[in-house]
Design goal:
With 115 residues, this protein is mostly helical. The protein folds into two domains: 1-45, no CATH class; 46-115, no CATH class. It has six helices and no strands. It has helices at 2-16, 26-45, 48-63, 66-71, 74-92, 98-112. Helix 3 runs antiparallel to helix 5 (74-92) and helix 5 runs antiparallel to helix 6. It is elongated, with a radius of gyration of 19 Å.
Length: 115
């Protein structure tokens, strides 16, 4: 039974990652899929190094007034940090990529929702 489960798990994972499970070994396929995804996202999101730089500078700015930062509820601090990541993508990638702006709007909306 375990072998059958592994067989179907492999097939589903391969299909999910855009691979043909009958012709390509899954680990190889996943690696190729990851590389393709990084290349594709690099065009709209910029490099990981640039994103890390911008995102960390924004987060440092947020925390520069420690008393104020600590007075903000967790959900709003989390929203600000997620928005920082989206802003970093705008600064280092394609500024006109709609997903970046839509994600910012979504996180801002979540920040003000009452639980």
């Amino acid at each position: 039974m375990r072998e059958l489960e592994e067989y179907f798990t492999h097939r589903l994972d391969a299909i999910r990652d855009g691979c043909d499970p009958d012709t390509v070994a899954f680990p190889t396929c996943k690696s190729n899929t990851t590389e393709a995804l990084l290349t594709e996202r690099g065009e709209t999101h910029g490099t990981f190094a640039d994103n890390a730089f911008y995102s960390q500078r924004l987060r440092e700015l947020f925390r520069s007034d420690e008393d104020n930062w600590n007075s903000i509820p967790d959900r709003q601090r989390e929203a600000l940090e997620m928005i920082a990541g989206k802003i970093s993508r705008i600064l280092s990638g394609a500024a006109d990529f709609p997903d970046h702006w839509e994600d910012i709007a979504g996180y801002a909306t979540l920040a003000v929702e009452v639980e």
